[in-house]
Hints:
This protein is mainly alpha-helical. The protein is built from 19 helices and two strands. A two-stranded antiparallel ribbon has the order 1-2. It is an enzyme of class 7 (translocase).
Amino acid sequence: MGGFNLENLNFVLLWPMLSLFFWAIVLLLLSAFKNFSKSFYTSVSVMALLGSFCLLCVFNGFRLDSTSAFFGLFISDNYSIFAQLIIIIFSIFYLIMDKEDKRAEFFSLFLFMIGSFILMISSTNLIVIFLALEGSSLALYTLIALRGTHNAISASIKYFTIAAVGAGFFAFACAFVYLKIRSLDLIDLLNSEYISDPVLLSAGVMFLVIVGIKLSIAPFHFWLKDVYYGAHTNFVAFISVVPKIAMIVVVLRIFSALGGGVKFEYIVAFLAMFSMFSASIAALVQNDVKKMLAYSSITHSSFVLAIIVSGINLNSQEGGVVYLIAVLALFLYWIAFAFANYGLFLILSLFKKSSYESFAGLFDKNPILAVVLALFVLSIAGIPPFGIFWGKLLILASILNSGYYAMVFTIALSSMIMIYPYLKILIYVFFKKSDNITHEQLAIEQKIILGICLAGSLGSVFLLL
């Protein structure tokens, strides 16, 4: 203890997270004394996120090696930094584009949730990950229910109930890991001599339950359609992107530590193939666009799980540059998906209903909006030359390098099946006629976000010129 000082804690690495907790408390206290307008809370929340972004860039930055704080409980590496940037940027986008009236508590809980996401992706200790995961999840359940409608409250309770089961499996998995290696740090697990032990395989299967729930992988997806239908449309866009990128980093850390010795990747590969195929079949029979996009989200999450499987295999067999390319493909794919998904849901939020018939005649009334909607649909469908196509191409190349040919076939088949539900939207937009189509007008802030999303979705096209 004689050599201990506060500098050893490396406190500056925690400032991006702690600043969000600070502003969350400030907003909570302000709401107790005075009822400010929604624009005030939105402005303060955006400034808090921008401040966290600046602190992240100044004190963390991108580096070749990782640094740690609080005796290794908090780490800063390229995984966590890149994911934090995505989380903060798309959280700001959501706050700016959402025009629904909200209570003051919403913004405080929102900042607490983002801070918990940052903590979750910035640790290799299973207890810290578990606490951050549950903290962010409790905030998310409450944010869904704060809308106050029967569907929103019902969806929140269903999500909470299913995720509580997953939390139990996570706790049991942590106990199994500690039983074998006497540590709860994933780095110790990666370097463990017990990596081929069947007890650790059992722990991996238990981890897979919470992963399936949080990434909405079939058959753990039963909460998703209710949330998509019950939550506000713009918040659905946030749920489908930001919490999942945080979980993707956790999955990378846990599965990479478990991969190789116990052949855990084969179980994950089977689940990914089953999920993407069953979800694409279910999407065919949906009559509501939001429900169809719920199943679309399952297929995209399954694609991400597939690239993680190939990453596990490459990491255990070859490692190095090939593994980094697989991880890069994962992040590029999810960024392209995030831009297209945000833009698509922003347009959907302008309509009171989300059935396919609601978009009939849109091209006749507002051709510009119809064309922009078509570009987002083509992008999220993976039609070349738009962004997600190139991300999917990188994923397929990485999976081929790892030798999972059956998974490549399943991805191709699932993508072909999903083309019909996507194109069905365009059929109603361009070829169906209706005199009763009505939609709200875009505010100036929403037009800016829509333009950014469109530029992000079309960015890969310009890179090819």
